[in-house]
Q: What sequence folds into this?
C-alpha cells in the first residue's frame, strides 16, 4: 500500500440518526453507498431516507454506489483506495429488510441457506489522515472462486496462503470467523481444514456475531469489528466475510504501527452508469427483478464489483 488509510469513525444508523440528520454535519469529501440488494434499493423510501440523512453536506460528489453482494464494504474500501479524496463516508445500507430479503430469495440464498435479512444500516468514515482512536487499514481484497468444480478447494488454498502471509506481516494478528449458515460456507471451512492438514498450522478463528440464520449482509464485518474494537486497538485484527457468487472478502486493520508491506490489490469495477436518486418520497414497494452478483459471467474475478454514479435530483437540504 503506497499510503496509509484509516477508519476514523463508525456507528450504527438508528431512527434517531435519521431524524436528527446529525451525521450530515461531519465534513467528508466523498460519499459511497453499498448494499447487498444492489442499486434498486435506492428507490425504496426507507433506504432513500437513510441516504439523505447521512450524506455529508460537504461531500463534493458525484456520489458512488458500489455493490458485490455481502462483501460490499470491502469493495467500498477498494474504491476509496483508487480515488483522490482525502476522506469519505461509507454507508452500508440494508434497509428495508423486506426488500433485502426479496433479493436474497431471488439469488436463491434466502430460502435454501435459511438467511433471514436483518433491518440494519451502518456508516464508516475512512480517511488518509489519522484521527484519535483511528484504526489503520493494512490490506483489503476480495478473492473469487472460479467456476470449475474444484473452485472451492482452490479458493481454500488461496485463502489459507493469504492468511498465513498476513500472519507473517502482522505478528499477533487475530482472525474473526467468516462462517455462516450456508452450505458453501460449510464446504469452504472443510476445505480449509483439508489444506491445513497437508502442511501448515491450522487457522484459529475468533467467533463472529453471525452464528445462526440472522443475516447482516454488508454490515457483518463492521459488527464483528465493533464486537472486537478494544482488541483491534491493541493488535491487528483480520475480518473476513463470504459473498454469494464465490467471493471471500479480507480486511486487516489495527493500531498504526508503521509502514505496511502490503500492495494495494487493483480493483476491477464494472461501471454501470448514472442513477438519478430522488429525495425520499412515499411510494409502493417494488420487487427486485434481477441480481447481478450471482451471474456466472462475473465469477472468478478478484476485487471485482459493480459501480454506479448517484446523482441526487432534488436535494432535500438546500
A:
Amino acid at each position: 500500500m503506497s499510503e496509509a488509510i484509516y477508519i476514523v469513525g463508525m456507528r450504527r444508523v438508528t431512527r434517531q440518526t435519521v431524524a436528527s440528520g446529525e451525521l450530515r454535519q461531519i465534513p467528508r469529501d466523498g460519499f459511497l453507498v453499498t448494499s447487498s440488494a444492489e442499486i434498486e434499493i435506492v428507490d425504496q423510501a426507507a433506504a432513500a431516507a437513510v441516504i439523505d440523512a447521512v450524506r455529508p453536506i460537504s461531500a463534493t460528489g458525484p456520489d458512488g454506489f458500489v455493490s458485490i453482494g455481502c462483501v460490499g464494504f470491502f469493495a467500498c474500501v477498494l474504491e476509496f483506495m483508487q480515488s483522490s479524496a482525502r476522506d469519505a463516508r461509507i454507508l452500508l445500507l440494508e434497509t428495508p429488510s423486506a426488500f433485502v430479503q426479496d433479493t436474497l430469495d431471488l439469488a436463491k440464498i434466502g430460502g435454501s441457506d435459511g438467511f433471514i435479512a436483518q433491518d440494519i444500516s451502518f456508516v464508516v468514515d475512512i480517511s488518509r489522515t489519522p484521527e484519535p482512536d483511528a484504526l489503520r487499514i493494512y490490506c483489503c481484497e476480495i478473492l473469487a472462486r472460479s467456476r470449475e468444480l474444484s473452485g472451492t478447494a482452490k479458493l481454500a488454498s488461496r485463502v489459507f496462503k493469504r492468511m498465513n502471509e498476513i500472519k507473517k506481516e502482522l505478528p499477533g494478528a487475530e482472525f474473526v470467523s467468516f462462517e455462516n449458515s450456508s452450505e458453501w460456507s460449510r464446504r469452504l471451512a472443510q476445505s480449509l481444514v483439508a489444506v491445513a492438514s497437508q502442511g501448515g498450522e491450522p487457522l484459529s478463528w475468533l467467533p463472529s456475531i453471525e452464528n445462526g440464520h440472522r443475516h447482516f449482509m454488508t454490515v457483518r464485518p463492521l459488527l464483528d469489528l465493533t464486537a472486537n474494537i478494544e482488541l483491534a486497538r491493541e493488535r491487528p485484527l483480520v475480518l473476513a466475510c463470504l459473498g454469494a457468487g464465490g467471493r471471500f472478502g479480507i480486511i486487516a486493520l489495527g493500531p498504526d504501527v508503521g509502514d505496511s508491506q502490503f500492495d494495494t490489490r487493483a480493483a476491477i469495477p464494472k461501471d454501470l452508469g448514472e442513477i438519478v436518486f430522488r429525495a425520499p418520497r412515499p411510494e409502493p414497494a417494488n420487487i427486485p427483478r434481477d441480481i447481478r452478483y450471482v451471474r456466472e459471467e462475473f465469477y472468478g474475478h478478484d476485487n471485482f464489483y459493480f459501480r454506479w454514479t448517484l446523482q441526487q435530483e432534488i436535494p432535500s437540504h438546500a
